[in-house]
Amino acid sequence: MRSTRFPSALAVLPAVLLLACLPATAQDAAQVERQHVGNRVVENIPEIPAELLARLNRYQNTRGAGLAGWTADGCLLIGTRFAETTQAHRVCEPLGMREQLTFEPERIGLGDIAPAGSGLDGFVYSRDLGGDEFWQLFWYDLGTRESSLLTDGERSRNQGALFSPDGSRLAYSSTARNGTDTDVWVMDFATREARPVVTEGGNWSAEDFSPDGSRMLVTRYVSINESYPGEVDLASGALRMFPVEGGKAGFGGFRYAPDGEGVFYVSDEPVDGQAQEFRTLRHHVPGSAPRIVSGHIPWDVRGFEISDDGRHLAYVTNEDGIARLHLLRLPGLEPVPLPELPVGVFGGASFSPDGSRLALSLNTATSPSDVYVVDIQAGSLERWTRSEVGGLPVDGFVEPALVRYPTFDRVDGAARTIPVFYYRPQSPAPPGGYPVVVSIHGGPEGQALPTFNPSFQFLANELGIAVLVPNVRGSSGYGKSYLLLDNATLREDSVKDIGALLDWIGRQPELDSERIGVMGGSYGGYMVLASLMHYSDRIRAGIDVVGISHFGTFLKNTEDYRRDLRRAEYGDERDPEIAAYFDRISPLTNAGRIATPLFVAQGRNDPRVPYTEAEQIVEAVRGTGQPVWFLMFDDEGHGFAKKSNSDYFGAAAMLFWQRFLLGEGDDHGE
User: Which GO terms describe its molecular function (predicted)?
Assistant: First the structure.
């Protein structure tokens, strides 16, 4: 172990002048020792008690299985973790052995599997270094059990691998051309020679090859509310953009119909001149008006799949956070009966090569992700994986209730309500009520879903803490109007939704309004800091993970390929009015208003929210005399992918709640 003096990250004042202006207690706090333990950087975090580690052990040894798809021999390719990181495994029968295929030191992302009948036997996967998200693509050959690098191996970001129907070509998105724009590339898979086919600038992705492989559907993504679909002729390179009804709309999946003439897609474009709140599945044949396939369901379609034999289409709707599976027979789009499925959230779906079965991964609030298979003709459901839950009794897990609370503004004369998932401890409430942790999702266009979270289960079952997980305005899943309510200069309205949640907590006899903590990651980390800035008198402590502390410095320092995407959501920092607004609302500028203990955790290689966002808020808040814990991993990025790192952070977070929310042990942890 070695220690160094905390380096200056705050660029507001020179270090000497800053220290001279601070009171004695703040100057003492600025002399915090920084400790390096392997890849871990810690400040102020006490040693984790053995008793806490023992209580956490089983919760930290749960795991799930994510579906990638079917291999040509009828096995399922899944991603799961048995050691430090998620790797590729193969399962060849229901509840069969999981055969580990890859053994990379870093977490991998599973990509496309070679089409059946292509003569290829393997799959594509991606891997970065230490969470930097400069993903490189690799081919794993199931015959030789060898991996080979497909992309340049440099500081480029490659993703979205997609095989042509005959397996002769591989499409993917890459920043290799200039490091800023994400182009669409196509590789001749036999020679491994690749060329860009869309270089229009911006963020492009390959969506689907036509059945004959001559054309490709592509999309340019601007923001969650704005995408532009098109088609590339691969022989000539000609790009044809499709008209967007209403001029601007959000799009989801985009696939050729089995005949290669029409397309299926997900969109919120107007219908008959009427604006649409939700994204619906649509079928468009040239020369006719689009057919709205899911118009009878007033919720978003999250995705869809078409079987290789062209006989079936499956799509999933997101209905108040719960996934619903729908199966249609093509070409007539007649509904096909399905067996009863567990209530939860689907993580992916894939038809078997012969189209007779549909595999899907399912996650519930009380069980990690596992893979199930629907036999379409028999109408039966079979479980293929059973993931571990650390030996914990499954019936002891808490299932959240979905409730709604009123916020500050009104809709159609009534108070707007905000949905929140409420994890209530099973033990009786203490005399003052349950302490509360509010967990705020990132995005900001994300959506909190009732999925399995071992940390929430530990808080509820072991510490007796209620967990509230809100979907404040700006969250996806509740319509376009709701999604737009926090854009640009409306940013702090979502923070007011947290204030309204604090009011609601105060009206619940079983909740303790004197003991409330907040936590969140990425944009949720900003929400934590902003909530502490506005409501320090009502919140005891906060945990900020890879969070934004100043929108101006964030946009300046985020990776080049992300900057325009984030400007579309937050505003353009080059505009003096927007820059001044950022200064007014950013936690860094208002660090003096954060009067509660703070824990900041960060990955050193984060390309999205640079580590400097964490360093500067730690120094600023500590400079006011507040207790601040700081944790950074040198081999992580936007979150913690390695089990040992995740476990340490989880243990430190629970210790932080014990100290500052529950009042157990040393009150300061300095």
Answer: hydrolase activity
* Residue linked to tokens 């105060």: 506
Phi-psi region of 382 (alpha: psi -120 to 50; beta: other; left: phi over 0): beta
Provide the residue ranges of all domains of the chain, joining segments of one domain with +.
Answer: 50-59+393-592+640-660
CA distance 215 to 243: 18
Residue with tokens 């995740």: 646
Structural contact between residues 267 and 250, judged by C-beta atoms closer than 8 angstroms: yes
Angle between helices 454-461 and 643-660 (to 10 degrees): 30
Alpha carbons 627 and 666: distance in angstroms, whole number: 12
Pick the CATH number of 50-59+393-592+640-660 from 3.40.30.10, 3.40.47.10, 3.40.50.1820, 1.10.10.10: 3.40.50.1820
Q: How far is CA 409 from the centre of its chain?
A: 28
Amino acid in the structure at residue 228: Y
Least Cα distance to 212 among 253, 164, 252 occurs for 164
The model's pLDDT over 428-462, given as tens digits with 9 standing for 90+, comes to: 999 999 999 999 999 888 899 999 999 999 999 99
Tell me the CA end-to-end span of the chain in Å, nearest whole number: 19
412's CB contacts (< 8 A; 6+ apart) are none
pTM for this predicted structure: 0.90
Quote the crossing angle between the two packed helices 491-506 and 523-535, to the nearest 10°.
60
How many Cα atoms within 13 Å fall on the side-chain side of residue 599?
A: 29
Q: Which two tokens stand for residue 448?
A: 């909190």
Query: How distant is the alpha carbon of residue 661 from its chain centre?
Result: 27
What's phi and psi for 230, nearest 5 deg?
A: -155, 180
Q: Which parts of 490-610 fold into alpha helices (H)?
A: 491-506, 523-535, 551-557, 560-570, 576-585
